[in-house]
Specification:
- The complex is a heterodimer of chains A (about 120) and B (about 110).
- Chain A has about 120 residues and is mainly β.
- Helices cover about 0% and strands about 45% of the residues of chain A.
- In chain A, strands 2, 4, 5, 6, 9, 10 and 11 form a 7-stranded mixed beta sheet that branches. A 4-stranded antiparallel beta sheet of chain A has the order 1-3-8-7, with no helix packed on it.
- With about 110 residues, chain B is an all-beta fold.
- In chain B, strands 2, 4, 5, 9, 10 and 11 form a 6-stranded mixed beta sheet that branches. A 5-stranded antiparallel beta sheet of chain B has the order 1-3-8-7-6, with no helix packed on it.
- Chain B is globular, with a radius of gyration of 13 Å.
- In chain B, strand 6 (about 55-60) and strand 7 form a beta hairpin.
- Classes of the chains: A mainly beta (about 120), B mainly beta (about 110).
């Protein structure tokens, strides 16, 4: 596709449910990033992939958060046993850069708004 | 630890005015700085990217400046239009890693 796509766009979950958020990066983009954006705040880094390798997961807030990119393209962010504090917009970004620093311009998807009741 | 601050948090101006949005950061060891626009339900759009060695970048009615030594960047919007209404965020990429550090944004409303 022409840009980064994310699905679903909106997700409502009951506290304790597991959710899976999908990101389709721009074709050929090596680097993929996940961010969490709380209401009224800037995005916060969660994790970074270079191809299928997860090079940095230091931003994941707890072990309930898990991300994968098994074939180096589509990525899934999974949140287990969701809590109310997980409510946020989850943004995915990709960049063409093949370097481990991922310094190339990032292109963002529209985000998934997660609401945990 | 890098901290990025944007002032004001919200701004409302009449159509046609020129305006300036401010971004400040505490650690000058940045690789680049970007200005983004965020529209509800449409994600983030990169507007301008300034490398640390550059002083400014221009795109249409937008001009972004960077003063790395003082830890400041401004986004100048000329002849504002209602379609410019959005939240504007600045983000810095540090020399030391690939993580973007973001401000909380300025919500801009242009009144017709």
């Amino acid at each position: 596709g022409a840009g980064v796509s994310q699905s679903p766009r909106y997700k409502v979950a009951k506290r304790g449910q597991d959710v899976a958020l999908r990101c389709d990066p721009i074709s050929g983009h090596v680097s993929l990033f996940w961010y969490q954006q709380a209401l009224g705040q800037g995005p916060e880094f969660l994790t970074y992939f270079q191809n299928e390798a997860q090079l940095d997961k230091s931003g994941l807030p707890s072990d309930r958060f898990f991300a994968e990119r098994p074939e180096g393209s589509v990525s899934t962010l999974k949140i287990q046993r969701t809590q109310q504090e997980d409510s946020a917009v989850y943004l995915c970004a990709s960049s063409l850069s093949g370097t481990s620093w991922g310094r190339a311009r990032k292109f963002f998807g529209p985000g998934t708004r997660l609401t945990v009741l | 630890k890098q901290e990025v601050t944007q002032i004001p948090a919200a701004l409302s101006v009449p159509e046609g005015e020129n305006l300036v949005l401010n971004c400040s950061f505490t650690d000058s060891a940045i690789y680049n700085l970007q200005w983004f626009r965020q529209d509800p339900g449409k994600g983030l759009t990169s507007l301008l990217l300034i490398q640390s060695s550059q002083r400014e970048q221009t795109s249409g009615r937008l001009n972004a400046s960077l003063d790395k030594s003082s830890g400041r960047s401004t986004l100048y919007i000329a002849a504002s239009q209602p379609g410019d209404s959005a939240t504007y965020l600045c983000a810095v990429l540090m020399d030391s890693n690939y993580q973007l550090i973001w401000g909380a944004g300025t919500k801009l409303i242009i009144k017709p």
